Amino acid sequence: MAHNINITNLSGHDQEFEVHGWNNNSNLTVQAGATVSIEANDGSSGAIIAVHDGHEGEQAEITKCGFGGNDFFDISNICGAGGNLTIQQAGNPATMKGVPTFMQQCNDAYHQADDNTKQSLQPCVHLDDSGNVVRIDACKDFPQLEAFVRTFADGTTYIGVGAWDGSAGAASDNNQSSAAQGSTDLQVTYNDGDATPPS
To answer: Which residues, at least 6 apart from 125, have a Cβ–Cβ distance to it below 8 Å?
Structure first.
């Protein structure tokens, strides 16, 4: 059996996504204000990854109808971020994962950080001309970035590499992979601003 993964772009610009596991592993662009649906077979796994200036950013990691017949999904910032992404089972806000205002929280935390922290983040936090955060690199490549992101997003997105390759990972990351309720259509929502899913 198959369900849809609906990808909604609430921003005012077209947004490119890498698609792994579905859509013939081909990138897709969702126009401003539009929704694109892709088909995902039960038992399949993959990721929907927002692309910012050619760099991978925030991603929805998904297994359809996995253990116990449930969907498993999370929002990960392991590979970075440049916008806000959420995922939930369609019509079920209780299953939402991700931070609808991740980038705004990131920017606030950066401006509140001390000079030493800002200096340490210089290689991996990218600012616009006004000094605001527009993109972060992969948390997995910069321990200081992972530590910084945990100050505002720990327990709400997948930040570190988690239980992987002999590492126990952080419990707050591993908990992101908790099961949803059965197998349904999924709603992935992107925005530069608030990415709360449309009701």
So the answer is: 110, 133, 136, 137, 145, 148
